[in-house]
Amino acid sequence: MNIQKWLTKNTHSLFGKTVVITGATGGLGRELSRYVVMLGANLVTVDRNESKSLALEKELTDEFPDASITRIIADMEDFDSVKSACERLKGIPIDYLILNAAAYSIPRKCCDTGYDNVFQINFVSPYYFIRELVPLLTERKGRIIAVGSIAHNYSTSDPDDIDFSTRSCSNLVYGNSKRYLMFSLYELMKSEKGNLSVVHPGITFTNITAHYPPLVFAIIKHPMKLIFMKPKKAALSILKGLFEHTEGYSWIGPKLFNIWGYPSKKPLKTAKKAEIDRIYQTAEGIYNKLK
Description:
Blueprint: H1 3-10, E1 18-22, H2 27-38, E2 42-47, H3 50-63, E3 69-73, H4 79-89, E4 96-99, H5 117-139, E5 143-147, H6 170-188, E6 196-199, H7 214-227, H8 231-240, E7 250-256, E8 260-267, H9 273-290
Helix pairs in contact: 2-8, 4-5, 5-6, 5-9, 6-9
């Protein structure tokens, strides 16, 4: 099956619907943006880089002249920026909110919220968006699509080091932030059946993987492109979240070993109830402190 056949079989028109994508100008975000515009949706991009947002808008409107695109600039490290973007989103009739923005191996710092920047970008800011926008999404019977990661299973959360600010291993720091995002949303959205899809792209070649030293990256980038799925195919797992929800503890990702192939839904058994409850309570505590 090629991608076009998969799209015909697994998607339908989104005409008249509004899709918000955070991190829209990255490798996966760019492909997602193209898919949703191709399916007829009104696209709202939430991204920190204005020039890249403008370039993406031009690229999409060149290909799809009737495309409706709204740009919102927001830096997930800057909480004032996040709050401002959230207020703008409250004035938009959202049908789908895709939490795609993420950071992996970046220079570490403590954000204005007091949390590590990787934790804030990947969890604190997205969770704030959700808590603020859930009432509006519920009213429209909208859906949240949260992009998780297989890295969430590299370690368990630590109540004594919530944001892993004392850790230096990028896999652990990134995985912990995704663990918080995924399991807090499962608990938050329990009563909102059908309104949550947790998805993951497996491993793909995007800017988020370009964190190695330049010489090392120059050597490995071509084999990586051959071994792992391209963003165009990896993004299908996220796109499928618009059309299929993940009830209970399940997620949508590549069929083979969570790395290769077209999307499939699988049960998720990587955290015990006590930890999930603690993650959710911590998430609520963070939100209540910041709102």
